[in-house]
Specification:
Keywords: Signal. With about 280 residues, this protein is α+β, with helices and mostly antiparallel strands. It has helices at about 1-20, 30-45, 120, 135-140, 190-200, 205-210; strands at about 45-60, 60-75, 75-80, 85-90, 100, 110-115, 155-165, 165-175, 180-185, 225, 230-240, 245-250, 255-265.
Length: about 280
């Protein structure tokens, strides 16, 4: 009996020693590595096809949309068609800088619209020119015009998850100090200039202050501006593509926006004619 006890004790000691000596896994990614690989994947994106599901808060209500998107980055060319049959096409150097837009409603004619104008920005947080992952890159890196980068520095690797069966790294920002602050430009500034200074995007500046996208904020006018992009921001990054599959932003009022990307085909050739107004299947 005593011999049996000694053998069991010896086995426990050997097993414990073996576990203690086992090497610690080194395949975990650091916050810095994740941010670097995500930024690099976005920067190196030459072409993109994907489906985008969006949920955005507009005037206290949620607007949802699902769109098919394709783009090239150099030169920038963007084609989008949503579930309502609305189409938009923008190509660098064409149509005097306007986008071709088919509204799929009366009078069923193609319109020429400024992609950064009020009509095209109605009921959506971002411009057509930000389609894809450009705005996400801006959120995590911040503008060089920002003086306070506390928000961007708040991102941390927060573990792994599955999105539609695909392994993802989770990038999380907790920014409890999110709030609106007063800002008075010393000289007239565009919404883009102000948004870049505060890293907040243009939409909430327009909504909070009753402004128009195509008009600058005059000198001496005090407005309310968010001091960051969100109170809690979650980005789920596909471990293989190193591109976002989910981006969710909460602010002082709750869910601000959520984007889900699927059917992603990155850096595969897209024929130039697919960005032509008369391409087969388009109603533009």
């Amino acid at each position: 009996m005593m011999r049996t006890i000694r053998l069991v004790a010896l086995a426990v000691v050997l097993l414990t020693s073996s576990l203690a000596a086992a090497p610690v896994p080194t395949d975990k990614i650091s916050t810095e590595q994740l941010l670097s690989r995500l930024s690099s994947a976005i920067d190196n994106l030459k072409t993109l096809r994907c489906t985008v599901r969006a949920k955005e808060r507009v005037e206290g209500k949620y607007v949802t949309a699902q769109s098919s998107l394709k783009l090239t980055s150099s030169p920038l060319r963007v084609y989008l068609r949503n579930q309502k049959g609305i189409e938009a096409l923008w190509v660098t150097g064409q149509n005097s800088g306007d986008a071709w837009v088919y509204p799929n409603s009366f009078p069923y004619v193609t319109l020429n619209l400024d992609p950064n104008g009020t009509l095209m920005r109605r009921d959506q947080h971002h411009s057509l020119l930000d389609a894809g992952f450009g705005s996400i890159s801006d959120i995590i890196r911040g503008s060089t015009q920002r003086q306070d980068h506390t928000f961007e520095r708040s991102f941390r690797y927060a573990g792994d998850t599955l999105v539609a069966g695909r392994p993802c790294h989770v990038l999380l920002s907790n920014f409890p100090q999110f709030r609106y602050v007063s800002y008075t430009p010393a000289k007239a500034e565009t919404l883009t200039q102000i948004a870049n200074k505060f890293g907040c995007g243009e939409f909430r500046i327009v909504e909070r202050n009753g402004l128009s996208y195509d008009k600058p904020v005059p000198a001496g006018k005090t407005i309310q501006v968010p001091n960051g992009y969100g109170r809690r921001t979650t980005v789920c990054v596909d471990q293989k593509l190193m591109l976002p599959l989910v981006v969710e932003v909460l602010d002082d009022k709750g869910l601000f926006e959520r984007f889900e990307f699927s059917n992603i085909i990155a850096n595969q050739p897209i024929a130039a004619e697919e960005f032509a107004k008369g391409y087969k299947g388009y109603k533009l």
